[in-house]
Amino acid sequence: MKSNTRKVLLGAATIAAVSAVGHDAKAAATALPMSAKIIAAITIAQTAGLDFGSVSVAPLTSGTVTVDNVNKRTAGGAGGVSLVGGTGAQSGQFKMTAAKVAIDITMPATATMKFAAANTLVVNAFKISNLVAAAATPFVTTPTTSVAKAGFDVGGVLTIPGGHAAGTYAGTVTITANYQ
Fold first, then answer.
1. For residue 125, is it within any domain?
2. Distance between CA atoms of 134 and 179, rounded to whole angstroms?
3. How far apart, in whole angstroms, are the C-alpha atoms of residue 15 and residue 9?
4. 0.85 exceeded by pTM
5. In terms of C-beta density within 10 A (0-12 exposed, 13-18 middle, 19 or more buried), how is residue 128 classed?
6. Considering the domain boundaries, does residue 53 fall inside one?
7. Is 56 contained in some domain?
8. What's the domain count of the chain?
9. Using CA of residue 168, residue 128, residue 139, residue 158, what is the dihedral sign?
10. Which among 37, 45, 152, 175 is positioned nearest to 99, based on CA atoms?
11. Parent domain of 71
């Protein structure tokens, strides 16, 4: 059996060597053009933070504060929240520079703000410019010039449980922009 295996291997090697040498006249070659276009990285700069302004909350009734993407503030929910003062609320504002390519702008569905370690409020229902956020669905925009300097605003809804502790709550949410 060992002798037959050696004969088969030797025969296969001989056929491969003869085949490789015998076909040089039929070979062909061509050039493959290559290219790459490098575009500028996307930059985002925050110019204003999302500020829900001053509010008061009823002892037992919860409510919401909405700041839309054009700085309009409203109270809602179960009616336990009252807006205090006519100023102070504003949408988050950003400037973005990017190439004229479709861009996905994403952010989490919810974020939190804290006051002292034990007090947390939830912000959700984010709205970027005139697009409504849906969980795991990016906003899509395409700049209108080859290098666009565009801005966008971010609004959201703050939910406040009844009787929640008074204080100044703060937090952050990450906004990401990627070329498609």
1. yes
2. 19
3. 10
4. no
5. buried
6. yes
7. yes
8. 1
9. positive
10. 37
11. 43-179
